[in-house]
Design a protein that fits this description.
Largest sheet of chain A: 3 strands, mixed
Radius of gyration of chain B: 40 Å
Low-confidence stretches of chain B: 1-7
Oligomer: heterodimer
Strand content of chain A: under 5%
Mean pLDDT of chain A: 85
Shape of chain A: elongated
Number of strands of chain B: 0
Largest sheet of chain B: none
Helix content of chain A: 55-70%
Radius of gyration of chain A: 30 Å
Largest interface: A-B, 48 and 52 residues
Structural class of chain A: mainly alpha
Order of helices and strands of chain B: HHHHHHHHHHHHHHHHHHH
Strand order of the largest sheet of chain A: 1-2-3
Helix content of chain B: over 70%
Low-confidence stretches of chain A: 1-18
Structural class of chain B: mainly alpha
Order of helices and strands of chain A: HHHHHHHHHHHHHHHHHHHHEHEEHEEH
Shape of chain B: rod-shaped
Strand content of chain B: under 5%
Distance between the termini of chain B: 116 Å
């Protein structure tokens, strides 16, 4: 992955803009709600632009495929050897000389843009990704267009946001918005795209960005569907669970998928760093050699593994292959994709992952249909579940994997097999390969991006985790200063809480009490000497950090019950909060 | 309140800046809109050209596939049809053709898997069920084949469903005949015949199958229907003759055989077929000469009975001479012959219809029992045996 220093980026932006741009402080002053309003409008524009670009990208891939490999590539054609090899050399040269940012899949680059470069993805990278990925995939490299689409979408979002001089915080948020749009258009499945971006790019649900992600994803899918129709990228046959005993077969599929995901991850994890460690001049020919090897697989009988393979998935899903051939295709696809991806050829992992999963699933389904015809449902259902299984096991996006299958099938009757098989594959993958594949790539690239799997599973601390029972005096507001002083001195407390008639509370220090008694008579009700301000209203379920910034003013904070107004659940101090964080 | 304070705090310069900012943002959004429009039309042009090209490719590969299939090159057809489907994945006919090509190439397992998937999508499709029935037949799975044939009969067909159902029924009947389930085949054929239009080809086909299903009576009925069409077909005459002969209706068979032998096309038939029909005619003639029919006068009938008696007794004697231990059936027969007067005269027979009937019955039983005990007879014995099987049918019209 190409890493460009931020300073260089900023300098480049400022060189390109002769007109003086307003500073963020100026913008805040003269148009405080501008960013917020533009944010939503731009999300739609980004969605539409990404949708159009992704449609063009896919057409470009198809055209290149027809022009170079022919309209029906089949084993034994010498062009299967020549085309991917020559394309690999050309693409490698383009990547090395002109578009270093286009290398790889695009997911980690988008994450890097989000976490390291303030959402910056250059126009050159977008163009480079479009051209090099289209060439590589169209010429038969075993890669998919989804991850590049994700990066193209993120790049478009970045460009649009920069042109409008949005704040750095907003600029950063546009990368996942564009990514969701790009992926949604490529998948023709907005929910799966949104979930993937949340699971793999952002890592957590964020209300601030969710609305915009949804807007952009929906916009891009509307555009994509205007062209491709509402069908997903492959036709989905009717899917049903015919017999509860079929769940055994789905569980077997989960186990097979888990192992396949492991083999795939280990192969990539082994070959990729070794190829990257080779002398720099070899980077010019690695894609070419990978192309030649992939071409050999195609030449000697398995041209189906070349390119993204959507039509092959479609055929498998519609029962056009016998189970042995399906199994062979899955194994050769793992090999071909490992070669193509490890060589640094631009292209994504999604389509190969779906391909392998579909082949394995269809293989299990066909086998069952052959030997236990009374038990088996449709082969398509198995292929579909297989896709989800590999998605969960290899890409380690369990939520996306489930919703992707449900979204593309449009049939919730398959949810049980999907959850069962995906969960088995996911747990197996986690047990056997602790580090998810995208993190492996990140580490191989020398980057330290946040682990999305860890982020997803990180439990947020709440005030209830730090609060303790009330151990300070509690005084009613109508009690006198003298009574309060007596209670405090008896308890030898430095702080006490005042309960007021309207259910609100005040946290008072001994110092405050001393000051009050200096200016008022001892029989003055204490509520009369309190200032107008009150302690913040905090409840046990609120995030723990929400209390932090009140401590300089209030040493003890009351935590209230949401159901009974004014009732105390406990109190927290700064020490309680810090102690809880240290324990976590 | 805070907002109001901010707004009121804007200096004239800042207001100007804000106006410029609004203008700039508006222009930026407008330019974005323009970019979207331009990109849309570029994408549309690309997409249109791509779609047209895909359709052309689909048709090109479909033609190649169909040609290869007709030329008996199913492997080439599979590749071509798969390519065609890659460009037109929703074309149902193309899908069925591909599955047919798979089956024709002997890739039965793949074909079954593919057809099953197609059936999942269109559960009541007659054509898919028919193809699955054929594949099950190929795989020797009788129950599966019969289920799919039945589903094909009950299924939906496009346009010519009436004709296709009849074809399926006839194919099913042929399958049942091959499996020697003649009763079930006969039922299917009678349904097909009942629903068939007055078409000589269909009548001939159904009659032929009924013959194979060992139902010569209904076959003869259909051949007779076919003979009402002009010009008369030799095949219909041959079929009628064959079935009438099989039903022992030799008088009727003779009529059809004579017509068949006189038919203009008869000489074009292979020599063995011609010989077969000539033999049948000769046998029918002889049978009619041996048969003591009720239409004959008393003298002629008595003469024939006496002649048949002689033949039967000789047959019995010959059969008994081959046995060291006489089986009870033969012994019983011999005893019954012994009970008859040693010499029966012509006049005696003319005057005693009861004796006449007893001799006739004994002749027939002799031919039947000796054929069981001493093997198939030849010559007049063979002809008498044919009469013995259904004496009342011999002159039935």
């Amino acid at each position: 992955m190409s890493v460009q220093p931020m300073q260089e980026t900023v300098a480049r932006i400022s060189k390109r803009t002769p007109q003086r741009l307003l500073t963020q402080a100026e913008l805040e002053k003269i148009a405080p709600t501008r960013d917020e309003r533009l944010f939503l409008v731009l999300s739609i524009f980004i969605g539409v632009l990404s949708g159009l670009l992704v449609v063009s990208f896919r057409i470009a891939i198809e055209w290149i495929k027809i022009l170079t490999l022919g309209s029906a590539p089949h084993a034994g054609q010498f062009r299967l050897l020549l085309v991917p090899a020559v394309a690999g050399l050309f693409v490698a040269a383009l990547v090395q000389l002109f578009f270093p940012g286009a290398r790889g899949s695009g997911v980690n680059q988008t994450k890097a843009a989000l976490y390291i470069y303030n959402g910056y993805i250059s126009f050159k990278t977008v163009i480079g990704k479009f051209v090099t990925a289209a060439l590589a995939i169209g010429c038969g490299h075993s890669l998919g267009p989804e991850d590049p689409s994700l990066q193209i979408g993120a790049g478009v979002a970045s460009m649009v946001a920069r042109r409008l001089n949005l704040s750095r915080q907003r600029l950063r948020l546009f990368a996942p918005i564009g990514a969701a749009a790009g992926l949604a258009a490529a998948f023709n499945a907005p929910i799966a795209a949104i979930l993937f971006v949340i699971e793999e790019v952002i890592g957590q649900w964020s209300a601030a960005v969710l609305g915009s992600i949804v807007l952009s994803a929906i916009s891009s899918v509307v555009v994509a569907r205007w062209f491709w129709g509402s069908e997903p990228i492959f036709r989905i046959p009717p899917v049903t669970l015919r017999d509860p005993r079929e769940l055994i077969a789905y569980a077997v599929l989960g186990v097979i998928g888990g192992f396949a995901a492991l083999v795939f991850s280990k192969s990539l994890g082994y070959l990729r760093p070794r190829l990257r460690a080779l002398p720099h001049w070899t980077h010019y020919c690695q894609s070419g050699i990978a192309g030649l090897l992939v071409g050999l697989i195609g030449f000697f009988g398995f041209p189906q593994v070349m390119g993204p393979g959507y039509e092959v998935m479609d055929q498998a899903m519609h029962g056009q292959f016998a189970w042995k051939l399906l199994l062979a295709l899955a194994l050769f696809k793992i090999l071909a994709t490992t070669l193509s991806f490890s060589s640094g050829t631009p292209g994504g992992m999604f389509a190969p992952t779906l391909f392998i999963g579909a082949m394995l699933g269809a293989s299990v389904g066909s086998f069952e249909k052959l030997f236990f015809p009374h038990l088996a449902g449709t082969v398509g259902a198995y292929a579909l579940v297989g896709m989800g299984v590999l998605f969960a096991g290899f890409l380690r996006a369990p939520l996306t994997s489930v919703f992707m299958v449900l979204e593309v099938s449009g049939n919730y009757s398959i949810i049980l097999p999907v959850i069962l098989a995906n969960m088995i594959a996911y747990l197996m993958s986690r047990a056997l390969q602790p580090v998810p594949i995208f993190e492996v790539f990140t580490h191989q690239d020398g980057l330290e991006l946040p682990s999305m799997e860890e982020a997803r599973e990180e439990s947020e601390l709440h005030l209830e985790d730090a609060l303790h029972p009330v151990d300070v005096p509690v005084i009613n507001g109508h009690q006198t200063i003298a009574e309060a002083a007596h209670s405090v001195s008896t308890a030898q407390a430095s702080v006490f809480l005042v309960s007021l008639w309207d259910g609100s509370w005040y946290s008072m220090t001994v110092h405050d009490l001393t000051s009050a008694s200096a200016t008022s008579t001892p029989d003055t009700p204490i509520e009369r000497v309190l200032p107008a301000e009150r302690v913040p209203i905090l409840f046990p379920d609120m995030p723990l950090d929400s209390a932090l910034h009140y401590f300089p003013r209030w040493p003890v904070l009351p935590i209230l019950n949401r159901a009974i107004k004014g009732k105390l659940e406990g109190i927290v101090t700064q020490d309680d909060v810090l102690h809880r964080y240290q324990e976590h | 309140m805070a907002v109001l304070q901010l707004r009121s705090a804007l200096t004239p310069e800042e207001r100007q800046l804000r106006q410029k900012l609004i203008l700039r943002d508006s222009l930026a959004l407008l330019s974005l809109f323009a970019i979207v429009i331009v990109l849309f039309f570029i994408t549309l042009a690309l997409f249109h050209s791509f779609s047209v090209h895909r359709q052309e490719l689909a048709q090109r590969w479909l033609r190649r596939g169909e040609n290869a299939l007709h030329a008996g090159q199913p492997l080439v057809a599979i590749d071509a049809l798969r390519s065609a489907l890659a460009y037109a994945p929703d074309d149902e006919n193309m899908q069925i053709e591909l599955a047919e090509a798979l089956a024709a190439a002997g890739r039965t397992e793949e074909a079954v898997a593919y057809f099953n998937t197609l059936l999942d999508a269109r559960p009541g499709n007659g054509m898919i069920n028919l193809q699955l029935a054929r594949l099950a037949e190929k795989q020797g799975d009788e129950a599966e084949a019969l289920d799919h044939y039945q589903a094909a009969l009950d299924g939906t067909w496009e346009g010519d469903g009436y004709i296709r159902r009849r074809e399926v029924r006839l194919e099913l009947a042929q399958y049942l005949i091959d499996r020697k389930h003649y009763d079930r085949a006969r039922n299917q054929l009678l349904i097909a015949a009942g629903n068939a239009p007055d078409d000589i080809n269909i009548e001939m086909q159904v009659a032929g199958l009924l013959e194979s299903a060992q139902d010569p009576a209904n076959a003869l009925h259909l051949y007779k229907k076919a003979l009402q069409h002009r010009p008369v077909r030799l095949m219909a005459l041959q079929g009628a003759a064959r079935t009438a002969y099989a039903l022992n209706r030799f008088l009727e068979a003779k009529e059809y055989l004579e017509r068949a032998l006189n038919h203009a096309d008869f000489e074009k038939e292979p020599a063995e077929v011609q010989a077969q029909f000539r033999n049948m005619l000769s046998d029918a003639d002889h049978i009619l000469l041996l048969y003591p029919g009720p239409e004959l006068n008393v003298r002629a009938r008595a003469e024939r009975i006496l002649g048949n008696k002689k033949i039967a007794q000789e047959r019995l004697a010959a059969c008994l001479s081959t046995k060291s231990v006489v089986p009870p059936a033969l012994q019983n027969l011999a005893d019954r012959w012994q009970q008859l007067p040693a010499r029966v005269r012509l006049l005696q027979l003319e005057q005693d219809p009861e004796l006449e009937q007893t001799i006739v019955q004994l002749v027939y039983q002799t031919e039947q029992v000796t054929s069981q005990q001493c093997g198939s007879p030849t010559g007049d014995d063979a002809l008498l045996l044919k009469i013995a099987q259904a004496p009342e049918a011999v002159e039935q019209q």
